[in-house]
From TrEMBL:
Keyword field: Amino-acid biosynthesis, Aminotransferase, Cytoplasm, Pyridoxal phosphate, Serine biosynthesis, Transferase
Compartmental location: Cytoplasm
SUPFAM superfamilies, sorted: PLP-dependent transferases
Residue ranges occupied by any Aminotransferase class V domain in the UniProt entry: 3-342
Species of origin: Paucilactobacillus hokkaidonensis
Modified residues (N6-(pyridoxal phosphate)lysine): K191
Pathway given in the UniProt record: Amino-acid biosynthesis; L-serine biosynthesis; L-serine from 3-phospho-D-glycerate: step 2/3
NCBIfam families linked to this entry: PRK05355.1
Subunit structure: Homodimer.
Gene that specifies this protein: serC
Protein name: Phosphoserine aminotransferase
Coiled coil: none
Catalytic activity: O-phospho-L-serine + 2-oxoglutarate = 3-phosphooxypyruvate + L-glutamate; 4-(phosphooxy)-L-threonine + 2-oxoglutarate = (R)-3-hydroxy-2-oxo-4-phosphooxybutanoate + L-glutamate
Amino acid sequence: MTVYNFSAGPGVLPATVLDQIQTEMKSFNGSQMSILEISHRSKQYEEMELEAEKDFRDLMNIDDSYAVLFLHGGGTLQFTNIALNLTDKYHHVAYVDSGHWAQKAMEAAQKIDGLQVDRIGSSDNNLPKISAPDDDPLDYLHITTNNTIEGTTYHQIPNSTQPLVADMSSNIMAQPYDVNQFDLIYAGAQKNIGPAGMAVVIVKRDRLTSHPELSEIMDYWLEDQKHSALNTPPVFCIYAAGLVFKWLKKFGGVPAIYQQNLEQAKLLYDYVDNSKLFNNSVAKDERSLTNLVFGTGNKQLDQQFIADAADKGLVNLAGHRLVGGMRASLYNAMPTAGVKALINQMKQFEMNHG
Ligand code: PMP
């Protein structure tokens, strides 16, 4: 049975990347040593890291005025690191409250002594507007481009007079964004980048200053000086991410995968919009391409659908425990065949239960 993994994270990875990892596992690059064993001070590591960074820069159009960091600690540690590294000037930041993860990011900043943290809007209804008053300078205005649990996305980023920081954990490289609109972008790796255990940070170098009061691995300036290898870096994650970047470049880069993501999401949303059983209540222009939420409005029926789908190899379709219902995460590596199989299953279920 073919299994399609709709998990919100760790998410599906390209099959060819997994094959390559398997082939190379015992001997990385002809070294007779596993990638799990090689030294992060070796030439082999350095070349691998530089290539991964170069491919990522190509994919996201990132120039040298930005540092690219591969760091430990997932998205969550960056919630804190951002607030510690970028708030020297005004000690004042604002967070657009677009959902659960935006709130978690804001709560991390609120723990920092002497930092004024404003909350902008609320995720109760539609997505809040990305804007903060111009007359009160902020160190940054924080946004979450894709809300993994709520299934909403900011498809357009308005020009902002305040410096923007974006959590792109769940839609980085799924659709084009202009890096130059942001002072900092960060993402946990385990959705569109690679395995869990790493975050990628893209940050304007002119925002970085030394922070000797912090633990060294939390100091972005120092990590940039040390090419993310201040201590032993997440070597395997960087290696696997590098393979995903190569896969995506071969696919045609972000514009090409964006077209596929649009097509896949359209297939599913069109079906849901015409269904008498399933529904999605997100405003059409705010719907996520990566996390598509839907439900029947009946808890028991939702459970039944999730169990039946799993029996057919369509796994991890339960919505987040905070919201219930279903969620299909269509990250970059999800093949269109998986989306079609899901829609067929929904049709079947609707025939039996509609
Ligand atoms: N931000 C967003 C938008 C997320 O979806 C998640 C995890 N699902 C996180 C942050 C937290 O990431 P991590 O688990 O890597 O700390």
